[in-house]
Amino acid sequence: MSDINIVIEDREGNALDHVAPTDMGLSLMEFLKASEYDVLATCGGMALCATCCVDVLEGEEKLNEMSDDEYAMLDTLPDLLPNSRLACQIQLSPAMEGLKVRLHAEQ
């Protein structure tokens, strides 16, 4: 199966189920933008701006290990949570079935 079900909660607390393809090499950030969520992604997915930050509500153990670059960028956020990640650094994969994320509060 190449599609996974993920739940995305916007900044107003509205959660929607989505079916996301895993066979196109998309990052979570690209999927969020394609789904018309309000994600700036100013740096275009290079882990340089943190404007695509999400808080992982369920399925954090399914994600790839955080890179040093991602950690350093997240560390600049004043309201960083232990479950915050950069959506641009999360490649969608079949292992992420059931992932639930919330868009991080605007900076």
Q: Let me know the CATH homologous superfamily.
A: Beta-grasp domain
The average pLDDT is 95
Spatial sequence of strands, sheet with the most strands: 2-1-5-3-4
**Second rung of CATH, namely the architecture:** Roll
Going by helix content, strand content and strand pairing, the class is alpha+beta
Write down the secondary-structure element order.
EEHEHEE
Low-confidence region ranges: none
Radius of gyration, in angstroms, nearest whole number: 13 Å
At the first level of CATH, the class is Alpha Beta
Helix tally equals: 2
Account of the 3D structure:
It is a single chain. With 107 residues, the chain is α+β, with helices and mostly antiparallel strands. The chain has one domain: Beta-grasp domain (Ubiquitin-like (UB roll)), CATH 3.10.20.30. Helix content is 13%, strand content 25%. It has two helices and five strands. The chain has helices at 28-34, 68-74, and strands at residues 3-9, 15-21, 53-58, 84-86, 100-103. It has a five-stranded mixed sheet. A hairpin with a 5-residue loop joins strand 1 and strand 2 (15-21). The radius of gyration is 13 Å and the shape is globular. The mean pLDDT is 95. InterPro entries: 2Fe-2S_ferredoxin-like_sf, 2Fe-2S_ferredoxin-type, Adrenodoxin-like, Beta-grasp_dom_sf.
